[in-house]
Amino acid sequence: MIDNPLSKRLESFRVLLGSGSPRRQELLRDIGVSFEQVQNKVEENYPQHLKAGDISDYLARLKSTNLRQNLRKNEILITADTVVWHKGVSLAKPADAAEASEMLRQLSYGWHEVITSVCFTTPEKQKIINCTTEVLFRKLDEEEIQYYTTTFKPFDKAGAYGIQEWLGNIAIEEIRGSYSNVVGLPTHLVYKTLMDMVS
Protein backbone atom coordinates (compact mmCIF):
# COMPACT_ATOMS: atom_id res chain seq x y z
CA MET A 1 0.00 0.00 0.00
CA ILE A 2 1.34 3.42 -0.96
CA ASP A 3 1.17 6.15 1.69
CA ASN A 4 -0.46 9.52 1.12
CA PRO A 5 2.51 11.79 0.21
CA LEU A 6 1.51 14.52 2.68
CA SER A 7 0.71 12.11 5.51
CA LYS A 8 4.12 10.53 5.06
CA ARG A 9 5.96 13.85 5.23
CA LEU A 10 4.02 14.92 8.32
CA GLU A 11 4.89 11.80 10.33
CA SER A 12 7.48 13.64 12.41
CA PHE A 13 5.29 16.72 12.90
CA ARG A 14 2.36 17.50 15.18
CA VAL A 15 -0.36 19.51 13.45
CA LEU A 16 -2.70 21.61 15.58
CA LEU A 17 -5.94 23.05 14.21
CA GLY A 18 -7.13 26.19 15.96
CA SER A 19 -10.67 25.94 14.64
CA GLY A 20 -13.89 24.38 15.85
CA SER A 21 -15.32 24.17 12.34
CA PRO A 22 -16.36 20.60 11.49
CA ARG A 23 -16.08 21.50 7.81
CA ARG A 24 -12.43 22.52 8.10
CA GLN A 25 -11.69 19.41 10.13
CA GLU A 26 -13.22 17.18 7.46
CA LEU A 27 -11.39 18.93 4.62
CA LEU A 28 -8.03 18.56 6.40
CA ARG A 29 -8.64 14.86 6.91
CA ASP A 30 -9.63 14.51 3.25
CA ILE A 31 -6.17 15.64 2.09
CA GLY A 32 -4.38 13.35 4.53
CA VAL A 33 -3.62 15.57 7.51
CA SER A 34 -3.81 14.06 11.00
CA PHE A 35 -4.28 16.82 13.55
CA GLU A 36 -5.34 17.73 17.04
CA GLN A 37 -8.07 20.32 17.46
CA VAL A 38 -7.21 22.98 20.05
CA GLN A 39 -9.60 25.38 21.75
CA ASN A 40 -9.21 28.91 20.48
CA LYS A 41 -11.61 31.61 21.65
CA VAL A 42 -10.95 34.90 19.89
CA GLU A 43 -13.00 38.07 19.52
CA GLU A 44 -13.13 38.46 15.75
CA ASN A 45 -12.61 42.22 15.61
CA TYR A 46 -10.52 43.89 12.93
CA PRO A 47 -9.52 47.45 11.92
CA GLN A 48 -12.38 48.96 9.93
CA HIS A 49 -10.14 50.22 7.12
CA LEU A 50 -9.35 46.63 6.05
CA LYS A 51 -11.13 45.23 3.02
CA ALA A 52 -11.80 41.80 1.47
CA GLY A 53 -8.82 39.44 1.84
CA ASP A 54 -7.01 41.81 4.19
CA ILE A 55 -9.79 41.13 6.72
CA SER A 56 -9.50 37.34 6.53
CA ASP A 57 -5.68 37.57 6.57
CA TYR A 58 -5.82 39.69 9.71
CA LEU A 59 -8.29 37.40 11.50
CA ALA A 60 -6.49 34.18 10.51
CA ARG A 61 -3.29 35.63 12.00
CA LEU A 62 -5.14 36.94 15.06
CA LYS A 63 -6.48 33.45 15.77
CA SER A 64 -2.91 32.19 16.07
CA THR A 65 -1.84 34.79 18.65
CA ASN A 66 -2.95 33.06 21.86
CA LEU A 67 -1.62 29.67 20.77
CA ARG A 68 1.68 30.65 19.17
CA GLN A 69 3.64 31.14 22.39
CA ASN A 70 3.11 27.52 23.43
CA LEU A 71 4.26 25.92 20.16
CA ARG A 72 7.15 23.48 20.33
CA LYS A 73 9.64 22.26 17.77
CA ASN A 74 8.02 20.31 14.90
CA GLU A 75 4.55 21.65 15.67
CA ILE A 76 2.48 23.40 13.02
CA LEU A 77 -0.55 25.45 14.01
CA ILE A 78 -3.25 26.07 11.39
CA THR A 79 -5.81 28.85 11.83
CA ALA A 80 -8.24 30.19 9.23
CA ASP A 81 -10.94 32.72 8.53
CA THR A 82 -13.53 33.08 5.79
CA VAL A 83 -15.04 36.35 4.57
CA VAL A 84 -18.01 36.83 2.26
CA TRP A 85 -17.39 40.07 0.36
CA HIS A 86 -20.31 41.71 -1.41
CA LYS A 87 -20.47 45.22 -2.90
CA GLY A 88 -17.65 46.50 -0.72
CA VAL A 89 -19.03 45.04 2.52
CA SER A 90 -17.98 42.02 4.58
CA LEU A 91 -20.94 39.83 5.50
CA ALA A 92 -19.93 38.20 8.77
CA LYS A 93 -21.72 35.52 10.77
CA PRO A 94 -25.33 36.62 11.33
CA ALA A 95 -26.52 37.20 14.87
CA ASP A 96 -30.01 35.81 14.31
CA ALA A 97 -32.54 34.64 11.71
CA ALA A 98 -33.55 38.17 10.74
CA GLU A 99 -29.96 39.17 10.00
CA ALA A 100 -29.34 35.90 8.13
CA SER A 101 -32.41 36.48 5.98
CA GLU A 102 -31.31 40.02 5.15
CA MET A 103 -27.86 38.78 4.10
CA LEU A 104 -29.40 36.22 1.76
CA ARG A 105 -31.63 38.89 0.22
CA GLN A 106 -28.47 40.90 -0.50
CA LEU A 107 -26.70 37.91 -2.05
CA SER A 108 -29.73 36.91 -4.12
CA TYR A 109 -29.49 37.44 -7.89
CA GLY A 110 -25.83 38.35 -8.22
CA TRP A 111 -22.17 37.57 -7.69
CA HIS A 112 -20.22 37.69 -4.45
CA GLU A 113 -16.73 36.66 -3.37
CA VAL A 114 -15.80 34.11 -0.74
CA ILE A 115 -12.28 34.59 0.59
CA THR A 116 -10.58 32.15 2.94
CA SER A 117 -7.23 32.90 4.54
CA VAL A 118 -5.14 30.21 6.22
CA CYS A 119 -2.29 30.96 8.63
CA PHE A 120 0.46 28.38 9.21
CA THR A 121 2.49 29.03 12.35
CA THR A 122 5.58 27.28 13.70
CA PRO A 123 7.88 28.40 16.53
CA GLU A 124 10.19 29.88 13.89
CA LYS A 125 7.93 31.41 11.24
CA GLN A 126 4.47 32.24 10.01
CA LYS A 127 2.95 32.04 6.54
CA ILE A 128 -0.46 33.21 5.32
CA ILE A 129 -2.21 32.17 2.13
CA ASN A 130 -5.61 33.19 0.81
CA CYS A 131 -7.94 32.15 -1.95
CA THR A 132 -10.89 33.91 -3.61
CA THR A 133 -13.86 32.15 -5.20
CA GLU A 134 -16.63 33.96 -7.06
CA VAL A 135 -20.16 32.62 -6.51
CA LEU A 136 -23.34 33.44 -8.46
CA PHE A 137 -26.72 33.10 -6.75
CA ARG A 138 -29.96 32.93 -8.69
CA LYS A 139 -32.83 35.03 -7.42
CA LEU A 140 -34.15 33.63 -4.14
CA ASP A 141 -37.75 34.00 -3.12
CA GLU A 142 -38.83 34.77 0.42
CA GLU A 143 -40.17 31.28 1.06
CA GLU A 144 -36.78 29.74 0.22
CA ILE A 145 -34.93 32.22 2.42
CA GLN A 146 -37.20 31.62 5.39
CA TYR A 147 -37.07 27.85 4.99
CA TYR A 148 -33.27 27.84 4.90
CA THR A 149 -32.66 30.17 7.83
CA THR A 150 -35.26 28.41 9.98
CA THR A 151 -34.34 24.83 9.12
CA PHE A 152 -30.55 25.05 8.84
CA LYS A 153 -29.87 27.97 11.23
CA PRO A 154 -26.69 29.16 9.45
CA PHE A 155 -25.56 31.47 12.26
CA ASP A 156 -22.02 30.08 12.40
CA LYS A 157 -21.36 30.80 8.72
CA ALA A 158 -20.06 33.95 7.06
CA GLY A 159 -22.66 35.26 4.63
CA ALA A 160 -25.35 33.15 6.31
CA TYR A 161 -25.04 30.08 4.11
CA GLY A 162 -23.15 26.85 3.69
CA ILE A 163 -22.48 25.83 0.10
CA GLN A 164 -22.63 22.15 1.10
CA GLU A 165 -26.17 22.54 2.46
CA TRP A 166 -29.61 22.75 0.82
CA LEU A 167 -29.21 26.36 -0.29
CA GLY A 168 -25.98 25.62 -2.08
CA ASN A 169 -27.67 22.83 -4.00
CA ILE A 170 -30.65 24.86 -5.17
CA ALA A 171 -29.41 28.46 -5.46
CA ILE A 172 -25.88 28.51 -6.88
CA GLU A 173 -25.78 28.87 -10.65
CA GLU A 174 -22.03 29.24 -11.17
CA ILE A 175 -18.74 29.08 -9.28
CA ARG A 176 -15.43 30.54 -10.45
CA GLY A 177 -12.61 29.02 -8.43
CA SER A 178 -12.22 26.51 -5.63
CA TYR A 179 -15.33 24.82 -4.21
CA SER A 180 -13.55 23.70 -1.02
CA ASN A 181 -12.54 27.32 -0.44
CA VAL A 182 -16.23 28.24 -0.10
CA VAL A 183 -16.76 25.33 2.30
CA GLY A 184 -14.00 26.79 4.48
CA LEU A 185 -10.53 25.71 3.33
CA PRO A 186 -8.74 25.98 -0.03
CA THR A 187 -7.44 22.42 0.14
CA HIS A 188 -5.21 22.63 -2.95
CA LEU A 189 -3.27 25.53 -1.41
CA VAL A 190 -3.20 24.00 2.08
CA TYR A 191 -1.78 20.78 0.64
CA LYS A 192 0.91 22.60 -1.38
CA THR A 193 1.87 24.87 1.53
CA LEU A 194 2.26 21.99 3.97
CA MET A 195 4.25 19.96 1.43
CA ASP A 196 6.61 22.92 0.96
CA MET A 197 6.93 23.52 4.72
CA VAL A 198 7.93 19.95 5.57
CA SER A 199 9.96 19.04 2.50
Your description of this structure?
38% of the residues lie in helices and 25% in strands. It is globular. The longest helix is centred in the first third of the chain and has 16 residues, at 53-68. Strands 1, 2, 3, 4, 5, 6 and 7 form a seven-stranded mixed β-sheet that branches. It is an alpha/beta fold and 199 residues long. The mean pLDDT is 96.
Q: Quote the distance from N terminus to C terminus.
A: 22 Å
- Reading off the top of the CATH hierarchy, the class is best stated as Alpha Beta
Elements, N to C (H/E): HEHEHEEHEEHHEHH
* Largest pleated sheet: 7 strands, mixed
The fraction of residues in strands falls at 25-35%
Short account of what is shown:
Helices cover 38% and strands 25% of the residues. With 199 residues, it is of the alpha/beta class.
List the helices and strands and how they pair.
Layout: H1 5-9, E1 14-17, H2 22-30, E2 36-37, H3 53-68, E3 75-86, E4 89-91, H4 97-107, E5 110-121, E6 126-137, H5 142-152, H6 166-171, E7 172-176, H7 179-183, H8 187-198
Parallel strand pairs: 1-2, 1-3
Antiparallel strand pairs: 3-4, 3-5, 5-6, 6-7
Helix pairs in contact: 4-5
Features:
Maf protein; alpha/beta; 8 helices; 38% helix; 199 residues; seven-stranded mixed β-sheet
